[in-house]
Amino acid sequence: MNIAIIFAGGIGQRLKNGADTTPKQFLKIHNKPIIIYTLKLFQEHKEIDKIYIAIHPDYYNYMEELVKHYYISKVAGIVNGGKTGQDSIYNALKLAQKENPDDSIVLIHDGVRPNITPEVISKNIQCTKENGNSITCTSCFETILISENHKNPKYVPYRKNTYSAQAPQCFHLGEIIKAHETVRKTNPDYTDIVDSCTLYKSLDKETYMVEGNRGNIKITTIEDLYILRALIRYREDMEAFGIDGKE
């Protein structure tokens, strides 16, 4: 069983879009909410069996309406998100655990990362089958600076050894829930745990990387919206002409 866990419980505080307070996952690109682009990627992927969504409680009913309107038939459940992104993921994982075996593969993915390619999804599933987990990433093109005082670089790692973690991040269902529950005993607020990879590494667990596509951006700023609009238009134009438009 391959299950997509889509977390979209936030309200997009870092994205300022004038007076519009709509959470970024529901902002529309070419008249379609961003989260629907994300869901359709997993809906249309032949290896994905089910989808679970963690959503902000205020938008639970709206999310149900969108799933029905856009015929996202693989959605097996929607759950309220928590205080943090990791809380939201945990809630969705626990819902999935009630209905699926612990050896299921779960692909944990941002609701506002709507441009992953089908090939990257498949590579993550295969890597998790072989190694137990997979972390989508791309190599860094720019120099990374490490600074503790936010003023002076303390350390500059070799660029060839640096990567940017993305999503999906994939695990076996029982294993990632066990990792969450271990962390929650001593760090219930998930302090400094920014994603599932960080959570796993905080327990000194080995993780495995899968190369992602560079168009797989996460919508965080208003500039990201403009980039996404162009990427989606490009992809749709390529599909209309029967051309492979992979980034």
Which sequence of strands runs across the widest sheet? 5-4-1-6-8-7-9
- What is the number of independent domains? 1
Question: How does the overall form come out from the CA principal axes?
Answer: globular
Q: What is the number of beta strands?
A: 9
Largest sheet, in brief, is: 7 strands, mixed
- The structural class is alpha/beta
Overall average residue pLDDT: 90
Report the CATH topology name: Spore Coat Polysaccharide Biosynthesis Protein SpsA, Chain A
Kindly report the name of the CATH homologous superfamily: Spore Coat Polysaccharide Biosynthesis Protein SpsA, Chain A
CATH A-level architecture: Alpha-Beta Complex
The H/E string reads EEEHEHEHEHEEHHEH
Could you name the CATH class? Alpha Beta
Could you tell me the radius of gyration in angstroms? Answer: 18 Å
Characterise the protein shown here.
This protein has 247 residues and is α/β, with parallel strands linked by helices. The chain has one domain: Spore Coat Polysaccharide Biosynthesis Protein SpsA, Chain A, CATH 3.90.550. It is built from seven helices and nine strands, in the order E-E-E-H-E-H-E-H-E-H-E-E-H-H-E-H. Helix 3 crosses helix 5 (173-186) and helix 5 (173-186) packs across helix 6 (196-202).
Describe the structure concisely.
Helix content is 36%, strand content 20%. The chain is of the alpha/beta class and 247 residues long.
Top keywords for this entry?
two-stranded antiparallel sheet, 7 helices, Spore Coat Polysaccharide Biosynthesis Protein SpsA, Chain A, 20% strand, 247 residues
